């Protein structure tokens, strides 16, 4: 972890604050970018050809404010798989969020911040026995299940677990739909709950996730409404067996650009199906992380088209120091269209550094000026499923510096 040099920082015991409080957030981020690029160029820093992030911690506060205003009474359990940056986790912990962890390492990352294990949901319905035993050892008792064998594993390794039944839900309009991997169909939930009752386990709630891959966004509020309605049926099944479910988990998949329009529909659906007194939680990931981070990449090579390719208008090719095996996995997983901005004020395609011919980040983009080797490109909204999906394929680094600024005053929260 690296911090920008003065005057852009002032460090307190809690979070990193940045100066220039009168600057709009985008200008503060751009100032930090320029500061780091200047530092790299002047000092010829080793590793200066690696991409790096600028994270505006103030955006975490603004997103948290949006959540509490639009989803009152629904506690967010941040999906750690989205971005496990310790600074991001620390700020969210201080804001009082819970945490959705799916592995031993994710639980460790949160527990190392001093977070109470009761604020962690082990939200993986298919866990290794060793992971269940670890959760019990550290006091993370809330976890999910969606199959018979998982119940047997939990009975053996954590019989005092507080269980949430994960039911199937899907959004046909989601970027990627893999609902078949997790979630019990409604025609199986009664059998699963009966087995849990026979084993003497404690089912405390029901949850769903309208998408089934790495946090891909859902755009259809009807999918949440159906999930809530189906959860009500599972609640009733559990109550008839003798359980006392008290938690509804509406999962993740919240999209930044349609959040305000979807939130009231989700709230109304909950009110129509569930009485007061039910504890409501959610598992947002990208909602909190995506817009916090800006990724800066350097152009390491350029291929100008010649001959017939040039005559037919084939874009020139830029090669940058990051690609789909690094922070751009979303280009493949979610078919996300990346929008680079030229830091320094024709058409290009943009490629990652590996030898794989599929390592293409942008097929075609137009800049206002010619791009040369050594120039820098800026990618906004790069906080979700970037560093956590990066690899070391072809021997390239998967470690990236992050420099922090804060466009908000923490005392206001």
Give structural notes.
It is a single chain. The chain is α/β, with parallel strands linked by helices. It has two domains: 32-56 and 292-405, Lyase, Ornithine Decarboxylase, Chain A, domain 1 (Beta Barrel), CATH 2.40.37.10; 57-288, Alanine racemase (TIM Barrel). Helices cover 32% and strands 21% of the residues. It has helices at residues 25-43, 57-70, 86-94, 104-111, 129-138, 148-157, 186-198, 221-241, 259-273, 286-289, 307-311, 330-333; strands at residues 10-11, 16-17, 52-56, 74-79, 98-101, 120-122, 142-145, 162-167, 202-208, 247-249, 279-282, 293-303, 316-320, 340-342, 347-351, 360-366, 376-379, 401-405. The strands form three sheets. Strands 3, 12, 13, 14, 15, 16, 17 and 18 form an eight-stranded mixed beta sheet that branches. It has an eight-stranded parallel beta sheet with strand order 6-5-4-11-10-9-8-7. A two-stranded antiparallel sheet has the order 1-2. Helix 7 runs parallel beside helix 8 and helix 8 (221-241) runs parallel beside helix 9. The longest helix is centred in the middle third of the chain and has 21 residues, at 221-241. It is elongated, with a radius of gyration of 23 Å. The two termini are 25 Å apart. The model is unreliable at 1-18 (pLDDT under 50).
Q: Alpha-carbon distance between the termini?
A: 25 Å
Q: Which stretches of 5+ consecutive residues score pLDDT under 50?
A: 1-18
CATH architecture of the largest domain: Alpha-Beta Barrel
Report the order of strands and helices.
EEHEHEHEHEHEHEHEHEHEHEHEHEEEEE
Tally of DSSP β-strands: 18
CATH topology of the largest domain: TIM Barrel
* Structural classification: alpha/beta
What is the number of helices?
12
Beta-strand fraction estimate: 15-25%
The whole-angstrom Rg is: 23 Å
